[in-house]
Amino acid sequence: MRDTRESRLLLVLLIAVAFALITVDIRGGEDSPVDGARQGAATVFGPIESGVSAAVDPVGNAVSAIRDSGQRHDRLAALEKENAALKARLGSDDRSRSRLKQLDKMLKIAGQGQYGIKGAEVIAIGAAQGFSWTITVDVGANDGIKRDMTVLNAEGLVGRVTTVGPNTATVLLASDPDFTVGTRMESGDELGFASGQGDRPLRVELLNGKAEVKKGDRLVTFGSQADRPFVPGVPVGVVSRVDPSGGGLTRTLYVTPYVGFTKLDIVGVVVEAPKKDPRDTVLPPKPKPTPRPTVTVTVTPSAEAPVDGQNQQEQ
Fold first, then answer.
1. Residues 145/116, Cβ–Cβ less than 8 Å
2. Residues 299-309, buried b or exposed e (16+ Cβ, 10 A)?
3. What b/e string do you get for 21-54 counting C-beta neighbours within 10 Å, with b at 16 or more?
4. How far, in Å, CA of 157 to CA of 229, rounded?
5. Which of 28, 231, 243, 252 is deepest in the core (most CB within 10 A)?
6. At what angle do helices 5-28 and 35-113 cross, to 10 degrees?
7. Burial of residue 122, with CB atoms counted within 10 A of its CB: 0-12 exposed, 13-18 middle, 19 or more buried
8. Please, what is the end-to-end C-alpha distance for the chain in angstroms?
9. What is each CA distance from 279 to 50, 190, 285, in whole angstroms?
10. Can you give the pLDDT at residue 98?
């Protein structure tokens, strides 16, 4: 269509009519005179709109899914981070609980034996010199630690202090071959000397070669003069083997120590000795023996066995 005066007038007229219809439709509401025409248009163009919508919706859904997927990924990452932090915190709490349990048990032992102790944490294993069985603890001269002090933990005798620095100290473990401590048998006065053998049981030489000793007997420290380097009554271990008595002046025992020297964490340095020997009060309760089941066998006479009276009649 050419751009003429008539065509421009027609366009203006159509626009005016369109605005008039819109005005009438708005003012008429539900009773609008063009409502029938609108319904007819919906009938004709509705299926077309549905087809277009069906074609467009998957794209929209895909975009929405991608957006939601990104949000879910971010949330998953956040949850994984929270879980990792929670696991780390729980792991730390488990370790703290384990340490508190060790400390609590060690304080009970100190209370039973009336030992004044200084708690410490093991910060290193081994020494710079040689291949000794030693540990380094985080207390030293500034904490009142001195050479030749007894070291224990929640289980029993750990060792003795050998070197002291301002803030750290070296402890020679009872498992070291150069370690020796005086011992006393539980519920008796049999004395001996225990020596370390590395990862093997302690070797104990009893002074009485005829002493009556059996597997399962327990030993504690005898104590030293002026309580240095050892205070009395600290649990040492349990007899695991007794060498046959050969009529010698001494008798050899092998003792499994209470302390696990490869897993030390919290220890206590005895800075104040007890006023009197605690004897056996610091030893743990003896384990109760496991009852063994008793089997009773009852013999029932066989039904086929002849009776004495029948045998006499047959004879």
1. no
2. eeeeeeeeeee
3. eeeeeeeeeeeeeeeeeeeeeeeeeeeeeeeeee
4. 12
5. 231
6. 60
7. middle
8. 149
9. 96, 13, 14
10. 83
Q: Say whether 267 sits in a helix, a strand or coil.
A: strand
Distance in angstroms (rounded) separating the CA atoms of residues 239 and 247: 20
The confidence score (pLDDT) of residue 298 equals: 64
- Residue 255's identity, in one-letter code, is V
> Can you spell out the DSSP letters for 25-62?
HHHHGGG-TTHHHHHHHHHHHHHHHHHHHHHHHHHHHH
- 128-142 exposure pattern, b = at least 16 Cβ within 10 A, e = fewer: eeeebbbbbbebbee
- Partners of 202 in the β-ladder: 255
pLDDT in tens, 6-19: 666 666 666 666 65
Mean pLDDT of the chain: 77
Q: Is 200 within 8 Å of 190 (Cβ atoms)?
A: no
Contact 161, 170 (CB under 8 A): yes
Q: Tally DSSP H helices, then E strands, for the chain.
A: 3, 12
Residue 86 to residues 58, 110, 132, Cα–Cα distance (Å): 40, 35, 40
pLDDT digits (tens, 9 = 90+) for 202-244: 999 999 988 889 999 999 999 999 999 999 999 999 999 999 8
Please tell me the distance from the alpha carbon of residue 227 to that of residue 144, in angstroms, as a whole number.
16
pLDDT at 94: 73
Residues in the chain: 315
Query: 206 pairs with which residues across the strands?
Result: 192, 251
Burial 181-209 (b: 16+ CB within 10 A, else e): bbbbbbeeebbbbbbbeeeebbbbbbebe
Please state the pTM of the whole predicted model.
0.64
How far is the C-alpha of 234 from the C-alpha of 130, rounded, in Å? 28
Residues of the chain under the 70 pLDDT cut: 1-76, 78-80, 82-92, 127-131, 289-315
